[in-house]
Amino acid sequence: MSVEFVGGKTPRVSYCKNGNGVSIRQAVFSQLDKNPLLTPKSLCKLLGLSYAQYRNYVTKLRNDWKYYHRNGRVPKVSSVHCWRGWTYVPRVLDRVGARGCGWRLSRGRNRMLIWRDALGCMHWFETGRVNLRVRKPANYGKVCQLVCNGFSWTGLIKSDTILEVVLKGIRFKGAHEVFETGERLPHAVIDKYTRSNGIIIRVGDRTHPTSVEVEYSYMDWAERNERILTQFLELLKGMTGEAPGDPLNRKNVTYVA
Fold it and tell me: φ and ψ at 145, to 5 degrees?
């Protein structure tokens, strides 16, 4: 630390270096890298600085350290790695003819049809439900494109009105996002909130050792409640003489992804 006298009155302190010739900024950053919870008062004590004199400067350095680009303290959200959802298609679609235009029949007893392409895959059940899975980087446009690839471009759905209803009926089921930290993290899996909120947090996984992975999903019980409410509203419409508002003629049976 060096002291300069301005006009022979009040000394002005130079905050460039401490008594050991080390930059105070560098020393503060080094201490915060070891312990990010240090307060300005604790930093002054560790560095042998007067808290009354250096309080404002150390506080500023501490704030600068939080947003220093090399530290990467603010996690950056990557694109959605995996998006899952569902929609319904009319039950009158030609499932037999679909096997000749890219769809293949599952070996299971549920007679599920499977569609795969570069965007993801779809599972089409006899009830009319279609489970969707879009590969990374996922977005809503790719979800709609996947549905169009399997139903519109193959000629299974020729009406733009029906296709629009199918696309509007797309619902969210779950997704997987990764928050990059830039540092190797210890491995841990937090699944305490899986059943209540559908959230799983993974850190230090072998696939993403420097990231925080968050898996979240729309709960099965919430989907069932939504379906029951829809059926109840349709029942009320039938009692009042109004036509049921389901152009896709969906069954009450469903398959949860």
Answer: -65, -35
Question: Rounded distance, CA 160 to CA 157, Å?
Answer: 8
- Backbone CA torsion sign across 28, 31, 35, 39: negative
Give tens-digit pLDDT for 190-217. 988 888 888 999 988 888 888 888 888 8
What single DSSP character describes residue 127?
Answer: T
CB hemisphere CA count around 68 (13 angstroms): 17
3-state helix, strand, coil in the chain (%, to 5): 35, 25, 40
Q: Where in the chain is the domain with CATH 1.10.10?
A: 2-66
pLDDT in tens, 133-159: 998 888 888 999 999 999 999 889 988
What CATH number belongs to 2-66? 1.10.10
Alpha-carbon separation of residue 225 from 93, 125, 229 (angstroms): 27, 21, 6
